[in-house]
What does this fold into?
Amino acid sequence: MKLSEINKILKGEIYEDIIFNKIKTNSKEIELGDLFLAINKGHDYIDEAIKNGAVAVISEKELNIPSIKVEDSIIALGEIAHYIRNLYDIPLIAITGSIGKTTTKELIYLVLSKKFKVLKSNKNQNNHIGLPLTLLNLDESYEIIVTELGMNHFNEISYLSKICNPNYAIITNIGTAHIGNLGSKKNILKAKLEILDGMNEKKLIINNKDKYLKKIKNTIKVDSKKLKIKNMKYGVIQEFDIDNVHFIFNSFKHLLSDVYIAIKVGLLFDIDLNLISEAIGEYQNIDGRLNIINKDYKIIDDSYNSSYESLIGGLKILQNDNNKKFIILGDMLELGKYSSKYHKKINKHLNKIKNKEVFLIGNYTKLIKGIHFDNIEEITKYLKNNLKKNNIVYIKGSRKFNLDKIKTRI
It folds into this structure.
């Protein structure tokens, strides 16, 4: 790509003779022939980028090298990503929802990869920086793009949708995540529906079991009511049949709605049901999202983040197990005026679990019955002294509390 093509987007000075390989925002990853786009603190590493081989720079500073000066380099990143996305006439599937975005993305990626070369967003690259960075990797070798779109406030998903121009949009569910910012589930639904803003044809795939989503007209509905499910220990290994094809999903029951969405997408792209079954069977839980770590005891690491719906799903896993359970919970954040209400509601779900100790950290968890700790060091020390063979440790809390560190210290 020529720098002049980027200049046409950003209306900067044109360097007709400069051709670059890739656009990168990390100076340490720059190789000879790359373009360095300085965002946030990246402006402090322009010299390092040039030393590593950058042939030009986009930044908010005036430079004495081939460069384009912009008012806001993050906005520039979005404009460039939009331009690159529209260089390639290939399907883009965008996923949003209160919970399940990343799981659904990974499942769809596995399914579509049975037939196509798929570009997907890594980890949780779902915001105004992560989504454009994903699109910077797009080239002529890819046949489909799968990405997720996250938000905390109104207009954020709209912005992302207009960057990536989805051909298919997916909303997994409407829950309480970010209800403190948005005020109600109706407003959360409104914010999630912004995913349609960047679409020409409104191909929206929804979970028809969600009471808010099923009211939306002209959608592609995914419903799992007719499937017979076999549950095994810890709720893991779900088995079911579709049109005489046997499926095994090596994860937890409440994630099955994400599986059904992935199956629907595979069928929409004419992938054989047997290949879809094979792909679903290959799924492994993502680190920090109900990931099982087997030692003499079992750790269920659900520490990536916490919302009311995802926590309830995690606690249900523990209800039918007779082994001793240590349940470690941190606050669910961004609930605003609803914080007390939803933390109190956790008690009735904990009451259904026998043979347990509940360890709590944070402010709102003081509304939950259990032992409150000031820091994770105290929790770790207690576990080291009390864990026994076949015990279960379940870890769940908002990222602020760094509960993921517990799994490496016990």
